[in-house]
Amino acid sequence: MMMTSKSDKSIQKADITRMAFNQGSLGMEFSWNYERQMHIAFAMMMNKILKKVYAGDEEGYRDALTRHVEFFNITPQLAPFVGGIVASMEEMKSCGEVDGEAISSIKTALMGPLSGIGDSVFVGCLRVIAVGIGISLAQNGNMFGPIVYFLIYNIPAFIIRYFGAHFGYSIGFKYLQRMQANGMMDKLLAAASILGVMVIGCMSKDMVWTTLNVELSKVGEEVTTLQSILDGIMPGLIGLGGTWMYFWLLKKKVNPIMLILGTMVLGIAGAYFGILAG
């Protein structure tokens, strides 16, 4: 295959805009599943750009699609930003300037930190404000209540989609090569990985609810349980341990569906025999 230079790139501004608002981008949660979550939608979002970048290179196009049906999950409004960066890197890869592993690493490194920011802004803040104003208007008989909610929530979301996609593509081209050359890329990936581990640790503490109902001793009304001892060592230790166990099983290629069914059986059995608190 003849190598092309960056100056001959086929991606145009209109391509990035279409990517930010195509079916895959707007449907990030339509095909969500427990195994790979938003992977199909992300691949759909990138598909037309990949066809342009790898025009005449069927193997490169096939490898790119395979790369982008790997696990992916992010606040949907920020997916075009990652898509912009990926588009630029795929363009660089078609010129032999980066490899596919670097693209996957960037996606993985960005998911956790961006989701933490995006969920806080859109789910924890903007949606709450929009619902509050919309319900207030609706309760007073104003028919524009649902419309106001829709506008307050979606106007910032679509602005972020548009500018995020173009900004992602811009920084992908301008800075990724420079960062790779001076070693900053490795530092960025290391820092993002540390932040991602911190986010996962917090999520395992707040989102994995497991309470052991095993009593060790009882003095009067004071009951000492195994759960209270573990919480004294480190709150959320059971949840963290469970998260790492699932991570280990997934690395062993255990089917995620089997893990879900096994968790259901374990929970029911544990509650029935009094090991787990109901």
Automatic annotation (TrEMBL):
The chain crosses the membrane at residues 114-135, 147-167, 188-209, 229-250, 257-277. GO terms for biological process: phosphoenolpyruvate-dependent sugar phosphotransferase system. One of its GO terms (cellular component) is plasma membrane. PROSITE patterns: PTS_EIID. It holds the Pfam family EIID-AGA. Keywords: Membrane, Transmembrane, Transmembrane helix. This is PTS system, mannose/fructose/sorbose family, IID component. The lineage of its organism: Bacteria, Bacillati, Bacillota, Clostridia, Eubacteriales.
